[in-house]
Amino acid sequence: MTRLLLTGAGGMLGRDLLAVLRTRGDLSVTAATRADLDITDPAAVRAAVTGHDVVINAAAWTDVDGAETRERAATTVNGDAVGYLADACAATGAQMIHISTDYVFPGDATEPYPENAPTSPVNAYGRSKLAGELAVRRLLPDAGYVVRTAWLYGEHGPNFVATMLRLAGEREHLDVVNDQRGQPTWSYALAEQLVALADAGIAGRAASGVYHGTASGETTWHGLARAVFTLRGLDPDRIRPATSDHFRRPAPRPSYSVLAHDRWAAAGLQPLPDWHSALAQMLATEPSGG
Known about the structure:
Rossmann fold; 17% strand; alpha/beta; six-stranded parallel beta sheet; two-stranded parallel ribbon; single chain
């Protein structure tokens, strides 16, 4: 029986991962929340990893704007701690799947970023996540998997889709950014993909390295908001387009976060489905929308 350690089990993606993993009778799963495991403690990490065949790291500093003034703290979690996990996996022979982000790219492309595109983060959060990626690739060249995702939404935790549905009941019109392009990604669909990647890695079908775990297709935040309203039977014209400078935030955001998905085929896996169909499925199965 494969023994799997899931870190960050209390987060939005972590809770979906746990739900998927619990359907698998052939896996022995250890779920570690932030309260269970301090991933910034190397000794605690080594003890937690020991005895496991696979580690999925869904733990992260996710406060993008907060990282601008606390970059060292963000890097401790997103960079140093990832290195501790990778080092422990290398010492025990475990495989590792680490969740990263589109923010490692500058966002100035005009076509989807391939997995091997040059990285150049535009904010502190992106730099902290890139540090984690580099640690995995350095310490686990043959057993480390980096899966970049973006624009996550789901049942658990704060996210854009849930915010739109809440504000729909509070405001007549919503101004939403129309000059940033990306791939809205349902956290449950990503969780299923990550478990499938773990299976492929254990079976020797998936080469180590970087994969892009985002939905197919692309849209803007404005397009996503209109889709949410339409699927909920609300008037999409209540969503008005706005530019990014209408919403000043401490951390700059990439204007183009569309990722290519070419590496999945070699692992015998399909990329995640189209963002709109996934959104429709999520809203049909989660009446609260978040």
